[in-house]
Design goal:
The protein has 110 residues and is an alpha+beta fold. The protein has one domain (3-103): P-loop containing nucleotide triphosphate hydrolases (Rossmann fold, 3-Layer(aba) Sandwich), CATH 3.40.50.300. The protein has helices spanning 41-49, 95-103, and strands at residues 3-12, 15-25, 56-61, 64-67. The radius of gyration is 16 Å and the shape is globular.
Length: 110
């Protein structure tokens, strides 16, 4: 397996949005997360990317723990891409141009 999401619990204020979420993704596998509005789809993606910290559970990428009760790797150290659903892209640019713009200055040129 490549990505492990184990027993993830997350709440906003006092209400749990995620309760014991578990899944694994193999390297090269394509996965879709489906559900009703408010079911936690974006929240689990934000947790995997490191934008949110779950109350309970473990996120592992290969053999590296990204998030657990004792450890939390910052988003910029995870090497995980994330494109928001709305409002974060420049409307006058293509998807490729938006991605290239975000990467400018972050790679070393030889």
């Amino acid at each position: 397996m490549f990505l492990y999401v184990e027993d993830i619990w997350f709440k906003y204020d006092k209400e749990f949005v995620l309760k014991g979420v578990d899944f694994q993704i193999s390297k090269g596998e394509t996965v879709a997360i489906l559900g009703e509005s408010g079911s936690g789809k974006s929240t689990i993606l934000r947790i995997i990317a490191g934008f949110e910290k779950p109350q309970k559970g473990i996120i592992r990428l290969e053999d590296k723990i990204l998030s657990s009760r004792k450890k939390f790797i910052l988003p910029e150290k995870r090497n995980i891409g994330f494109v928001f659903q709305d409002y974060a892209l420049f409307p006058h640019m293509t998807v490729r141009e938006n991605i290239e713009y975000a990467r400018k200055g972050k790679t070393k040129k030889c």
